[in-house]
Amino acid sequence: MSGLWTIFRRELAGLFFGPLAWLLLFAAMLLNGALLAWYVGVFDGDVDFSISMLLGHGLPYWTVMAVLPPLLTMKMISEESRAGLLEFLLTAPVTDQAVVLGKLLAATAFMSLLWAAALLYGLALGFLGAAPDWPVLFGAYSGAVLVSGLFCGIGLVASAGTSTPILAAFLSFVFNLVLLLLPFLKDLAGATPENWQGAVFRRIDVVARLQGSFANGVLDTAHVVFFLVWTGFCAFLATRLVESRRWR
What we know:
Layout (H helix, E strand, L loop, with lengths): L3 H14 L1 H24 L4 H11 L1 H15 L4 H6 L1 H6 L5 H20 L1 H11 L6 H27 L4 H21 L10 H8 L2 H6 L9 H25 L3
Helix pairs in contact: 1-7, 2-3, 2-4, 3-4, 3-9, 4-9, 4-10, 7-9, 7-13, 9-10, 9-13
């Protein structure tokens, strides 16, 4: 795909050359380190469960997931559109798909680096004589990366749909929040395990898919496909929105 690698390097460099990404990375890693130490103490030294809390079972994980991707992606398309740089980029010898996928991969790579801190924590615990179950840790990390890709894709759709970065971040955060609150909305929709509403909620329950497989060290291909397909759908929508700017 023409220009994909170039866009990816450009966006990733842009993230690390700016202060916002470093501040977000520092704050999130500091929070995760403090939480892991607290989890290990609360759960009587259960390292594996403490790490699973850090990568999917704990509320702080989902809070970071709902907030950080919108902040990372809010400027990727909307700011370039407002500044007139997007029109220049769209006339360059790169495809619209490459533009969107390059930005998506850059944002996901940043989130992957954030969650990779859990691997370092696992090594540190191993040196202290409390080595984690590595298959569980790698499974939880893989799930965190897949969920990050989906939420970054949602952020890019919002960023492509508006020329105001703050509005893009707000819309993305609201959609993320609705997606995460779906398990609590089942009763309002009259969903039960027996009716079709319950089946729909089970299929789109992101939290249950992560906690029921990846966070326990299980790589279920059905869940992998779920996240990849929906991330691809978000990339498709963002691409269509970027293409529409050519005709404005």
